[in-house]
Specification:
Shape: rod-shaped
Helix content: over 70%
Structural class: mainly alpha
Order of helices and strands: HH
Number of strands: 0
Number of domains: 1
Distance between the termini: 91 Å
Radius of gyration: 27 Å
Number of helices: 2
């Protein structure tokens, strides 16, 4: 093998290694995003279950309802 072929092969290996590292970095970032989203959903579910809190999109309605209930007390 000539020196040019070796350097070309080495360059291709470096590009390949960089591509693989970049792909793994993206995979790890996506896994971290999924873990974070799952943790938020789990916390939301546990709050709803433990305290009978409606989902976040209905919270304002429930707060208004709670204020009305307190006004009767």
């Amino acid at each position: 093998m000539s020196t040019d072929e070796n350097s070309s092969s080495s360059s291709d290996n470096n590009k390949s290694d960089h591509f693989v590292r970049n792909c793994w970095s993206q995979v790890l970032d996506l896994a971290e995003q999924l873990r974070h989203k799952t943790e938020i959903q789990k916390t939301e579910y546990l709050l709803q279950y433990a305290f009978d809190i409606p989902p976040s999109n209905d919270r304002q309605t429930s707060l208004n309802h709670a204020d009305n209930v307190k006004s009767f007390e």
